[in-house]
Amino acid sequence: MAALGANLAIAASKFVAFAFSGSSSMLAEGVHSLADSGNQALLLIGGKKAQHEATPQHPFGYGRERYIYAFLVSIVLFSVGGMFAIYEGYEKIKHPHEIEHWYWPVGVLVFAIIAEGFSFRTAIKESNELRGTLSWSQFIRRAKAPELPVVLLEDFGALIGLVLALGGVGVALLTGDGTWDGIGTVCIGVLLVLIALVLAGETKSLLLGESAGLEDVQKIEAAVVDGHTVTGVIHMRTLHLGPEELLVAAKIAVQHDETAAQVATAINAAEARIRAAVPIARVIYLEPDIYSEAEAAKGPDREATPGGPAPHATEH
């Protein structure tokens, strides 16, 4: 919401500055801010749609709507933001003209830097509550909720773009050569295209389906085992159905002399422990099996064995 409000205000001011000055950097930056406003609207729509209840046709719900709309954001940023800016910059270089009423673009750019800085600061504050000890690049790569990485990259790109636009306008005013305004515009476009490609790659990975983080996997493995009926994990798969919804499917080792009722009770207890350890683990499937040490020695590699990771385990 902070990013949306800032971008709408900035877009309006940039278009006013373009109307008075004729600066192509201002036009490109205005379209960029307008595209960013649309991007925030897409993220809000995706968040709303993701709240729909599961249906027989979509039994795992609509959590991935957020990933779809985040991917659309990268496409909008690439096409409307980046490619338009490159085209506008090329036209300005090919047909340069002197910037009029220079105080309009300079004043708007200074205002825009302040507004984008506020939005960027808000995104950093929100992200710091989630990223923990991760670096910023690690946080962007590993975050399961797409909104914060998208806003972070957008605002970061916007601030750099504003500096480039200010530099292009400044050099054009000092030299009297409008070509520099076009060069600044092309640089803005290239920057937006690069950011869009990064966003597309990250959201594509989320759309394909990512597993839980290593910390959550370890918590789940520890929660499954009770030391009595459930003695270990033979193998396990996890999948994010959405940023706050995780599917867990595991084959677990149980004592061979337990009754069906005891195994069923142990599985229910294991599911409760998993949900307590990792609250986003909402869809859980546990299949009981008998673990064999003899077969484990010659069996295929698995993800984990009773007591933790080991090179060999097998299922029966």
UniProtKB/TrEMBL annotation:
Lineage: Bacteria, Bacillati, Actinomycetota, Actinomycetes, Kitasatosporales
Keywords carried by this UniProt record: Membrane, Signal, Transmembrane, Transmembrane helix, Transport
Location in or out of the cell: Membrane
Main location: membrane
Entry's Gene Ontology BP terms: zinc ion transport
Protein name, UniProt field: Transporter
Family annotation (Pfam families): Cation_efflux
Species: Streptomyces humidus
Lipid bilayer topology: Multi-pass membrane protein
GO molecular function, one term: monoatomic cation transmembrane transporter activity
